[in-house]
Amino acid sequence: MTNETTAATSIGIRAAVWAVLPAAGAGLGWVVLHQLPGWLLRIPFVPMRGPLRLLDRFAEPWATSGALLLGAVAGLVLAGLIDRESLTVRISGTEVTLHRPGSTRTVPRGEVAVAYRERDQLVLLGRTGRELAREPANTSAGKLAAAFGPVWSHHDPYADAYRRWVPDLPDVPAEAAALFAARRQALERGDADDARELRDELARLGFVVRDERKRQHFRRTDG
User: Fold this and answer.
1) Are 123 and 208 in contact (CB under 8 A)?
2) Which residues share a beta bridge with 123?
3) Cβ atoms of residues 91 and 148 within 8 Å
4) 89 vs 91: CA distance, rounded Å
5) At a CB cut-off of 8 Å and minimum separation 6, what does 197 contact?
6) Chain centroid offset of residue 92 CA
7) What is the pLDDT of residues 7-42, one digit of tens each?
8) How far apart are CA 126 and CA 82, in angstroms?
9) Which of left, alpha, beta for 166 (phi over 0: left; psi -120 to 50: alpha)?
10) Which of 220, 223, 177 is nearest to 198 (CA)?
11) Backbone phi, psi, residue 101, to 5°
């Protein structure tokens, strides 16, 4: 039997997210319908008084039912977005599997030299400093440290090697510069999937990228 170590977001936490957020959304919908219009109308010179009066006079019980339903749906959408960050890490004798809803990535265990957490992301590095994987993770650092053992680090060992990307850097080849420029546009429009794919393309060219407030910082790998 192959020994396997697993680190995952608590089932209790995930269940709480799915239970609490729709309920909170429904409650917020009720407040917006029944309390907010009246409160705003008591403020002199508040704009859009006509729509607010209309909202304040919606027929019951349809108004309350609609507000509760819309709020609950919004809560479900938010819960789904949060649950996508629920990473499960499985480490066997031969590989590291990173699974979250809608995504699975596998890395040979022997290639992982360093694992660390950077804000809300788990990062795996190879022996030359190449980035092997970067996945959103709300799994606790303690669970991850116990799972990865001696390769776990509390910080990025290459943190001081990063510098900010700007156009026309002389030591960045044209192909990589084009990818950086495309990725900047993806970050500006909030296209996370495109930004992720472009990060992988840059990794194949020997660039490791991290983002700070939509600004790209990079380093070259050792090999």
Assistant:
1) no
2) 116, 134
3) yes
4) 7
5) none
6) 25
7) 766 666 667 766 777 888 777 766 665 555 555 445
8) 29
9) beta
10) 177
11) -50, 120
> What tens digit of pLDDT does each residue of 157-204 get?
999 999 999 999 999 999 999 999 999 999 999 998 899 999 999 999
| Cα–Cα dist 12/16, whole Å | 6
- Which segments of 2-120 are extended strands (E)? 5-8, 88-91, 95-100, 103-108, 114-118
Please identify which residue in the block is written with the tokens 């650092």: 141
Report yes or no: 138 and 86 within 8 Å, Cβ to Cβ: yes
| Residue 218 parent element (H or E) | strand 215-220
Phi, psi of 165 (to 5 degrees): -85, 135
The residue with tokens 């900010």 is 164
Structure-token pair, residue 210 = 């991290």
